[in-house]
Amino acid sequence: MLKVGIIGTGVIFDLNVLGYLNNEDVEISCLCNRTIDKAKDKIKKFKLHKDTRAYSDYKEMLEEEELDIVEILLPHHLHADAVIYAAKRGVKTISVQKPMALTIEEADIMIEECKNSGSTLSVYENFLFAPHILKAKELIDSDYIGDPSSIRIKIAMGGKGGWKVPNGANLWREDPKMVGGAKTGSQVLIDNGWHAFSLAYWFFGEEIEKVFAQTGNYKGIDAPAYVMFKYHQKHEHLVPQYGHMEFVLMPEMQIPSNYYPTDEFIEIIASRGIMKINQGTSIGNPMSNSEIFAPIIIIRDGKVETFNEFEKDWKLSFINTTKHLIEVAKGNKEPILSGEQAKYILRFNLAAIRSSELGNEILMREFP
């Protein structure tokens, strides 16, 4: 049985823990939170084993425990140090939340330390495991709509709705040195935006040649934001491939959601058809019952097809990601995002942020 330790028991813990529950392959041995009572509360809330231990210092936890998997659910600026310490303690499978690090230099050190210790570094990306998004990827890879040429990802951020986040839980995101990205911090592009950058890279399987971005400033956050990019075209395609991301604000809009008041919409145009992928974070809300917002809509050969037979709940993307991570720890699968792959997404992400600061197009081959 694999022994698991989780560092950080904030709001997102409630989703990350689900894939471990009632799983005979794993045992949650310990939790860590700077405020130890919060870790103890999670042990009670999720009815973890009575012997599950709580720590207030993750270094003490890693010194005391023999763990097979460590999940790191900490603010961005703590990712690198926690991964490096876990690797030096010989933890074989280390999962860290997005973004993997604040800088490319940090990412390089994390990768090197894991390589030296024989640890597998996996960067947690739940969107790639949402049931309808997995199906969309399968259809694209099977040439169902032909050769993709364009992707547009729209992230709609509502001002109302969703779960209640404790006061003060997000204060660290207001500190540029903690959240990272731009000199003044990037609460949108490097944080929530990471998912869109990951999807753009994963769907097409091509690296990025150049990127241009513009961002606004709404109450101190880098939004609305628009990112345009061209793929490198390592493989031959019928039409050059381009992409576009939009991070839009709707401060008066209530988005009914069991989680954050945010939703995602993706459009992929290919040589024989158009695919629309509706909803992400808020899937399962009243919008999901409308035919025009079916999880997948395909226009192909003069016909419109809908794919609607999915269990609609964002938590499934977390459960599936964790189950995949367990298989990685068992040696049966490779991480969905290895350290090197996640470092590339970080470069893509930081290049867009840098472009927005300079007002210039960034060529990826010239970006450090």
Quick synopsis:
By secondary structure, this protein is of the alpha/beta class.
Compile the SSE list and pairings.
Layout: E1 2-7, H1 13-16, E2 26-32, H2 36-45, E3 53-55, H3 58-64, E4 69-72, H4 79-88, E5 93-96, H5 104-117, E6 120-123, H6 131-141, E7 148-160, H7 176-179, H8 188-192, H9 194-204, E8 208-215, E9 225-231, E10 242-254, E11 262-270, E12 273-278, E13 296-300, E14 303-307, H10 315-329, H11 339-358, E15 362-363
Parallel strand pairs: 1-2, 1-4, 2-3, 4-5, 5-6, 7-10
Antiparallel strand pairs: 7-11, 8-9, 8-15, 9-10, 11-12, 12-13, 13-14
Helix pairs in contact: 4-5, 5-11, 9-11
Counting helices, strands and paired strands, the structural category is alpha/beta
Biggest sheet statistics? 9 strands, mixed
**How many domains is the backbone divided into?**
2
The number of distinct β-strands equals 15
Q: What is the share of helical residues? A: 25-40%
- Beta-strand percent range: 25-35%
**pLDDT under 50 segments (min length 5)?**
none
Number of helices: 11
Mean pLDDT: 96
Q: What Rg do the Cα atoms give?
A: 20 Å
CATH homology superfamily of the largest domain: Dihydrodipicolinate Reductase, domain 2
Sketch the topology as an H/E string, one letter per element. EHEHEHEHEHEHEHHHEEEEEEEHHE
The second-level CATH architecture of the largest domain is: 2-Layer Sandwich
Q: Report the CATH topology name of the largest domain.
A: Dihydrodipicolinate Reductase, domain 2
Morphology: globular
Give the termini separation.
Answer: 42 Å
CATH class of the largest domain: Alpha Beta
